[in-house]
Amino acid sequence: MGSKRYREALKMIDKNKRYELDEAIKTLKDFPSTKFDETVEVHFNLGVDPRKADQQIRNSLVLPHGSGQTSRVLVFAEGNKADEAKAAGADFVGVDEYIDKINSGWLDFDVAIATPNLMGKIGRLGRVLGPRGLMPNPKVGTVTMDVTKAVNESKGGKVTYRIDKFSNLHVIGGKKSFTEDMLKENILSIISAILRERPAALKGVFIKSISITSTMGPGIKLDVTSATIAARK
User: Fold this and answer.
1) What is the pTM of this model?
2) What is the SS3 assignment for the chain?
3) What mean pLDDT is predicted for residues 6-11?
4) Is the pLDDT of residue 129 over 70?
C-alpha cells in the first residue's frame, strides 16, 4: 500500500521544477495521507568537504514550533544535578546503572545529556553512542551544568544535525499535521541556521540543493536562491 501512496504523491510533483517554499509545503500537505502523522524533513546537499576539520558541520537548534516529537531524555548526573534533571522532566537520570544498561544494548532514549564532570566515565560509551548521534556533546548543548535548560530544550523541539560523509544533512522540520505557516517558519529557521554554518575558508557554492520530504513521501526540490533569501529576512 505504501508504494501506491508514494506513486500517487510522485505524480503530484514535477521532478524538473525547483519549487518556491510555499508551493512545496502546500504540495507536501496534499500528499495522500498515511495512518500516522508523518515527520517532515529538510534535506541539504552542501558544497563542503566533511573530511576537513573546519568543514565539519554539527549543531542544534530549537524550532519555533517544536519538532512535534516527544524526545525521551537520559541525563547522566549525580546529586543536586540529578534532582534538577528529574524536576525538569528527564525520563531517565543516573550514572553507573545507565552506563551498564547501554553497554548491555539498551538504547531506549532519543537524547543524552551529561554534566561535564562525568564525561570521563561516559567517554567510554562513544563507540556505541557516537555512530547513532547520541553522544553528549558540548557543541550541541548536551554537555552542560545547566541540565534544566538542556532538558527543557530537548523536550521542547530542539533538533540536532550533522553532516554525513557525502556532504548531506537531514534536519527534522516538524509534522505533516502542522499548519503551512508553522512548517514554513520551522523550515526557514533551519535554512537560516545552516546558512550561518558556512565555513570561512569555503570557496564556491555552499548550499547546492534543498528538498523537503515527509516520512513516506518523495522529496520536493526547493529553489535554493529564493529559499535562502527568505531565510535571511
Assistant:
1) 0.77
2) CHHHHHHHHHHCCCCCCCECHHHHHHHHHHCCCCCCCCEEEEEEEECCCCCCHHHCCEEEEECCCCCCCCCCEEEECCHHHHHHHHHHCCCEEECHHHHHHHHCCCCCCCEEEECHHHHHHHHHHHHHHHHHCCCCCHHHCCECCCHHHHHHHHHCCEEEEECCCCCEEEEEEEECCCCHHHHHHHHHHHHHHHHCCCCCCCCCCCEEEEEEEECCCCCEEECHHHHHHHHHC
3) 92
4) yes
